[in-house]
């Protein structure tokens, strides 16, 4: 199939879905395309005739409701690594190419996870709480050197986490679609079918998997029962990987020692959630990958891909819509020309 491009001499039309903020530094993109910024309530009117969509508000699910019945733009790019909110049936089954922002968040999230492991081991969240209460309470803390970490998800983010934790002295194992030995970043990788046994061996279980039909609710009451009573759960993947009600029950009952959660089933996390008040839980507002300058990096990646799109060149970070992520083992520069069937 030949690429579907704008008429010769006509710049492509791009709709940018914005939320509370708009991307800055879009001047280069605006020189390449006719760019229109819209909010959710105007998206349906803006999509017909558009060539591409930049989902800047990556938490929005509005694209599914606004998608034209006869098929939408040729290309959709999202300002996040996760694409679960984009993969509605009409988009998956159509010819639209989806790209993500893979590669931008890997190292920042890995640093954040290391920080969470240290905070949990050294009980830093309690120290901060006691300081606020003016309480002098001496405790003993734990070593992380030699502790066992299971990283669930073997994409770039999971690999970066594995490297950081290994460098800090933890013994790292991965869990992914394909089993392998002597992985350079994750050591032994167990298949998802072997996750039950791996959970029982880990001191820290780190979730960095994409949200798919297979992974949704993967950490439920049964999985939590398999974890060690001294183990901690860290989730920087997607909130729906965890059955939150089951997690609350496990934490209250002491079936696991604690959790550090950056993502949740409902975001923002409702004030009524018991997770706010549990003393063995660290709650953060979906910020593990958001470091100074991250928005600029997102715009630069999109602008680079927009230049490729306008010229009919291969795109970076093409998502396999059936898998729900950029194909396993593929580099960040995974490419595909718009309009040509995706590579697996």
From TrEMBL:
Record-annotated D-isomer specific 2-hydroxyacid dehydrogenase NAD-binding domain positions: 114-288
GO molecular function, one term: NAD binding
UniProt key word Oxidoreductase: yes
Keyword Zinc found: no
Keywords attached to this entry: NAD, Oxidoreductase
SUPFAM superfamilies, alphabetized: Formate/glycerate dehydrogenase catalytic domain-like, NAD(P)-binding Rossmann-fold domains
Protein name according to UniProt: Phosphoglycerate dehydrogenase
Lineage: Bacteria, Bacillati, Actinomycetota, Actinomycetes, Streptosporangiales
